[in-house]
Amino acid sequence: MGEILGLGVTHHPGFLGQDENLAELLRRTLKSDRVPAHLRDSKNWPEPMQQEWGSDEGLASAASHRAHLMADFAKVRDRLDAFKPDFVVIWGDDQYEQFREDCVPPFNVFIFDKYECQPYLQSSSINPGKSNIWGDPIEKVFKFQGHMAGAGYLVQNLIESDFDMAYSYKVRDGSPLPHSFLNTIQYLDYDRRGFNHPIVPFHVNCYGSTVIRSRGSLGHLFGGVENRFDPISPTPRRCFQIGQATARILRDSPWRVAIIASSSWSHAFLTEKNNWIYPDVEADLRCFEDLKAGRYTKFRDMNLKDIEEAGQQEVLNWVCLAGAMHELDSKPEFIDFVGSWIFNSSKVMATFAPVS
Ligand SMILES: [Fe+2]
Fold it and tell me: How far apart are CA 159 and CA 21, in angstroms?
């Protein structure tokens, strides 16, 4: 019998760079013609947003936001290491990185033994032209272990459980694994102690109706997008079910497995009702209270229309985790809400009680 440890983290790209660039997404958004002109003046922002921006354009807030989250990452990493997993399944989204016009699967598992990439050179999500916080050379090669047997077993058993799974043995030429997976490992290894746990990246098509239309990012803010929307994400109900099935399958496996939901929650650049400049903090806090209290079925019962209106597309990764924790009857051991009005998104960090 296996043993399962649930974890939840953010993969916000801003922490790869310096503090002065942490509000980069806000600065880019404010250049859009779709943002009302009066909102280019910070005096017209909501009060908590002005406070976080302060008199230094958010520089002091960036330092404390980073310090808070990286302290949480260290806690999650210690929990992961103490658990001694055989492999780590990561639920993460793809933002027009691996999956483009030729194919967008609702879910996809990457199956590999070893994987190497040069993310600073290959990924536009990683700001290749800017320095990174570790001072890594731009051509640095990152090497990851996979787990062929575990990944193959998971896909096989999901298909036998009536989930029509897609899988990949290789990545798209010229494009690394999505930053949802790479950044998760970067931040779990923020102190550069090394990360040798084998990984099984499990993609969820969180961006759904705008993944091609907005290029999984700010495309809708800078012209040229068609009025047509793409077909939707998998429903919250389906994400919850696949999380439940994943937990059952891995609990019955011979392995010790950590399962991680990787994403921030409401994203400013997806929240039209806030003119794309700040996230839906209230919606996130309601979800956070549900998660904290173990009211997991609330995530199953979320509505995709409400999710999109709240800019919470990436929460679908956490709906998978909520399904898994519901199935295992595991409650949070550590959980933290790290809100922000200017750094694009609310972040939630969590560890759950291991279950065998
Ligand atoms: Fe993402």
Answer: 43
Instruction: Let me know how long the chain is.
Output: 356
Give the model confidence (pLDDT) of 7-31 as tens digits. 999 999 999 999 999 999 999 999 9
Which residues partner with 237 through β-bridges?
Answer: none
Contact 258, 301 (CB under 8 A): no
pLDDT at residue 122 tops 90 = no
Q: What is the pLDDT of residues 186-212, one digit of tens each?
A: 999 999 999 999 999 999 999 999 999
Residue 109 near residue 84, CB atoms below 8 Å = no
**Residue 295, helix vs strand vs coil:** coil
Q: How far is the CA of 178 from the centre of ligand 1 (A)?
A: 8
Local structure of 187: helix, strand or coil: helix
In three-state secondary structure terms, 332 is strand
Say if residue 138's pLDDT is above 90: no
Read off the CATH number of the domain in which 125 is found.
Answer: 3.40.830.10
| Residue 49 CA, ligand 1 centroid: distance in Å | 22
| Tally of structural domains, the chain | 1
Distance between Cα 263 and ligand 1 center (Å): 6
Residues around the ion ligand 1 (C-beta < 5 A): 93, 180
CB neighbour class for 207 (10 Å; exposed up to 12, middle 13-18, buried from 19):
buried
Query: For tokens 């993310």, what's the residue?
Result: 119
CA 179 to ligand 1 center in whole angstroms: 7
Range of the domain at 318: 3-352
Q: Is the pLDDT of residue 127 over 70?
A: no
How close is the Cα of 10 to the center of ligand 1, in Å? Answer: 8
Rounded (5°) CA angle 182-186-190: 170
